[in-house]
Amino acid sequence: MTSSVIIPLCKVLIREFENINKLRDFCTVFTKVLVEELEVYNENEFLQMGMLLDVRFKGDFAEEKWKELLIEKLIKSAEESNLQEDTKPDDSVKCLRDNPFHRFMREKRSETQQKTKRTQHEIIRAEVQIWFNEACESEANPADYWERATSREKFPNLYRLQQEYLHTPAAAPETVGDLPPNRTATSANRGLVDAEDFSKFLFLQENIRLTGLGLEFHPTLFTL
């Protein structure tokens, strides 16, 4: 689990609880607190960038300003590192480029780029546009996705940036259950919720603390 899931999970939970008719008082309180937390998360650059670079979410949960910031970061990173499209690829990408079918398609794309004489900024914007235009892979493992040679070759600039934002754990397993009984989701009343919802509660509990945003736990939210 990566930190990129925090904002999408909050938004999904808010919508789900708004549509639940049972236990309305609890749902109302839970939703109110979660909305307040989400306002903080929405201004967290680290969480936003990770979400945009996650193949499961991409731009579906983000505002346009964060997409533009992503492009700015890609351009800045390329300029600082003096990285061009012909940067030496790793061994797996080299093998991919030796494939005659792939080589044919790559050369065709290169011909198109030469005809249009695109600048590096335009190349980066085009890469990001393709990224957002392609459908999300909701069941994919983002780490596995970026390990694919095809992904690294197709989105070289995004690949470099995701190494900075995407591979941070969202929760540390060793901390689960360490909180006092009145501040943990693992209370005696946890049997009131099913396994899926309990997992979500526990995930939120641990991540609100681990984000380092100085947020305090709300007893109504985390005492089930």
From TrEMBL:
InterPro entries: RNaseH-like_sf. This is HAT C-terminal dimerisation domain-containing protein. It comes from Caenorhabditis latens.
